[in-house]
Amino acid sequence: MLYAGCSRCQSVTTLVCGGRFMPHVPLAVEPSPMGAACAWCGPLPPIFTCMVCGTTQGLYLPGMTVPPAQGAGVAPLVAPVAQAPQNAAPHQLRSGFEEAAQQFASSFGKQFGQNLANSMSTWTS
Ligand SMILES: [Zn+2]
Ligand SMILES: [Zn+2]
């Protein structure tokens, strides 16, 4: 399973796709170099909307080669993604988010400016 951690409220959400163009049965998404990918819809936009606080932010999976979405309507925040088994323990997820945040800072921190990398520091401190 892929889990996204909201950089605003630290809620953890499992990433599923319910259909990008045509609705389908919610399906767990898979990691890809383009971000999360759905077996039915293909790569999904590198964007995440938290179900708890409603914040739309960029999404970063370790190893992703495209930058997380930023722009109109997207908060200057990036949600890290951790890969873990279903029903993973919170500390397991947390170390996954820490890893993602650190990788993001080293791959995209310069490109995006430190602010965006710092938005993930909620997960590393
Ligand atoms: Zn889909
Ligand atoms: Zn949130």
How many whole angstroms does the radius of gyration measure?
13 Å
Measured by DSSP, the beta-strand proportion falls in 25-35%
Average predicted local confidence, pLDDT? 92
Shape: globular
Uncertain spans:
none
SS-based class: alpha+beta
| Count of helical stretches | 3
For the largest beta-sheet, the strand count, sense and barrel status come to: 5 strands, mixed
Q: Which small-molecule species are bound to the chains here? A: zinc ion
**Helix percentage:** 25-40%
N-to-C span: 24 Å
Strands in their spatial order, largest beta sheet: 2-1-10-9-8
Number of strands: 10
> What string gives the helices and strands in order?
EEEEEEEEEEHHH
